[in-house]
Specification:
Elements (H helix, E strand, L loop, with lengths): L1 H28 L5
Length: 34
C-alpha cells in the first residue's frame, strides 16, 4: 500500500511537466486545434 502511495505521489509531482510537454507538442503539431 505504501509503494502505491509513493507511485501516485511521483505521478502527481510530474503532472505539471507532462501537461506542459503536452501543450508544447500541441503547439507544434496541432493536436487539439486541428
Amino acid at each position: 500500500m505504501f509503494s502505491l502511495h509513493v507511485q501516485f505521489y511521483s505521478i502527481f509531482s510530474h503532472l505539471p511537466s507532462l501537461i506542459l510537454l503536452f501543450f508544447i507538442f500541441d503547439v507544434d503539431y496541432g493536436i487539439i486545434s486541428n
